[in-house]
Design a protein that fits this description.
This protein is an alpha+beta fold and about 500 residues long. It is about 65% helix and about 10% strand. The two termini are about 70 Å apart.
Length: about 500
């Protein structure tokens, strides 16, 4: 009968999982830079860790497939016994009379041992191509991990700068929100004591204050959501408190991409994990054709073994046996046309899918680059508008203070200036997100070969160095067309004009 999990078992599992998820993480002792955030995501993000384990499993499966190339070595030891003798007699085929007395040539109980080495050449050939398929599946798993890591770094970049913008304004939001709430209480006191016309209070003060408070509360909630999103990407508890380390000046310099669009296309076609993954899948399909061809051949099995039998009637109790067999499964010949047809269909599907990915890669390169240009233009316009809005806010606040008016105008002007600054920060986060999409579309990933062996500081320094090279126009040298092997990245870099 099925036994449902008990509450105690579930709680035990949850406690164990919680310890495993957050165990062995380097503590956060200082504000986090964007590169440290990327490093933490690469080491502790669960989705990326799943891809690492999938790659490890595929690698182990490839190692196991190699053992199938070896011959079978079977050792047998046993005991055989019966309650009577294995006796027999002979009868003449001519007269029908028994020609010999009943006799036996086997002990009632005996021990047997043998070591047999067998090797089927057909199975060896099929196992050889199967091992090549498993090796290509390891490469497919590696490309899948690269893709996950690239998308993860782009998401971290976006979430980091979103949280950075709201973190810069967190103190000001709380200060203005406190003033707005106090003003709302004052207005409510005036309304309750009927010191002014109720309609004027409702239309011009209470309504405006409530709108301002709503906007400020939305900004405060945006901060919490951005922090939770980034914490999830970094693999840390959402309840853990942490701060971001930002540049001293808020007016960040917009990043640049000094790479021609045709060079970007060439780089993407060489480095994108999706295209490389399809090439490896085509290799796997090709090896399936070789396996199907081998199955049409007869199997040749060579067998040798050492045998020992304690039967006392035997002249030789131990002997070496040699044999050779040729066998053919005739049903393989019958099903061969259907099998080759299916493999051909798979090959055509793979080719079509690869062409589809080819066009998708080119489209994504152009789209991401155009989106980056648009984001860059929007950031510049937002900076100009923010400068104007800040000046207008100062004039309004100064006039309101000189006229000794209510704090509503000052609160409204301060809120508008705050919203303008937030829009500027969001525009900068947008251009950083667009930059990350460009890097993903090019298939770039500044990752060391071994991630688990690096601490956060070392890994962050590596990512920062590569990222700064990209921003200065230095990109990896990809394999030239006609090379024997498809290599991801050369160790050198080149300046792109």
């Amino acid at each position: 009968m099925p036994e449902p999990i008990t509450q105690v078992e579930q709680q035990t599992s949850l406690d164990t999982d919680k310890q495993v998820i957050f165990a062995k993480q380097e503590p956060i002792l200082a504000p986090i830079t964007v590169y440290e955030a990327m490093a933490r995501a690469l080491k502790y993000n669960l989705n990326h860790r799943v891809k690492l384990m999938e790659h490890a499993v595929a690698d182990g499966q490839s190692d196991l497939a190699k053992f199938s190339l070896l011959p079978d070595l079977i050792a047998t030891a046993g005991y055989r016994g019966r309650d009577n003798f294995n006796a027999s007699s002979s009868r003449s085929t001519a007269t029908g009379q028994q020609s010999l007395v009943t006799s036996t040539s086997q002990d009632r109980s005996r021990k047997i041992f043998d070591f047999t080495l067998s090797w089927n050449l057909l199975d060896f050939g099929i196992s050889y191509f199967q091992a090549k398929q498993e090796a290509n599946r390891v490469l497919v798993a590696e490309e899948s991990r690269r893709k996950t890591a690239q998308l993860l770094m782009q998401e971290v970049r976006t979430a980091f700068w979103r949280m950075a913008g709201t973190q810069q304004l967190e103190g000001e939001i709380d200060k203005i929100l406190s003033s707005a709430r106090q003003s709302l209480k004052d207005v409510q006191g005036i309304e309750s004591e009927r010191l002014a016309a109720p309609l004027a209070i409702l239309q011009y003060e209470k309504k405006d204050l409530l709108e301002i408070i709503r906007k400020l509360e939305e900004l405060s909630e945006t901060l919490r959501l951005a922090k939770t999103e980034l914490a999830s990407l970094l693999g840390i508890s959402p309840s853990q408190k942490f701060q971001l380390k930002l540049p001293e000046k808020l007016a960040f310099q917009a990043p640049k991409i000094s790479l021609a669009i045709d060079k970007m296309e060439e780089m993407a076609l060489q480095l994108r994990p999706e295209l490389r993954e399809e090439i490896y899948n085509n290799r796997i399909t090709k090896e399936e054709t070789h396996k199907a061809m081998l199955r049409l051949l007869p199997g040749i099995e060579l067998r040798t073994g050492y045998n020992y039998d304690t039967n006392s009637y035997l002249l030789n109790n131990n002997w070496v046996e040699l044999s050779g067999l040729i066998s053919q499964n005739l049903m393989e010949l019958i099903s061969a046309p259907a099998r080759f047809s299916q493999i051909d269909a798979q090959k055509k599907l793979g080719d079509t899918r690869r062409l589809s990915v080819y066009m998708a890669v080119l489209t994504q390169v152009h789209l991401s680059y155009q989106q980056f240009l648009v984001a860059d233009q929007q950031y510049k316009r937002t900076l100009e508008l923010d400068g104007i809005n800040q000046k207008i806010s100062k004039y309004i606040i100064t006039d309101a203070e000189n006229d000794a008016k209510s704090g509503l105008e000052r609160i409204r002007a301060t809120t508008n200036a705050l919203m303008s600054r937030l829009q500027t920060l969001e525009a900068y986060a947008g251009i950083q997100s667009s930059l990350g999409r460009v890097y993903v579309s090019l298939g770039l990933d500044p990752l060391p070969v071994f991630i688990e062996n690096y601490d956060i500081t070392t890994l962050a320094s590596s990512i920062e160095a590569v990222d700064k090279n990209w921003q200065s126009g230095e990109f990896p040298v990809v394999t030239k067309p006609g090379a024997d092997k498809l290599s991801a990245v050369d160790s050198s870099v080149v300046k792109k004009n």
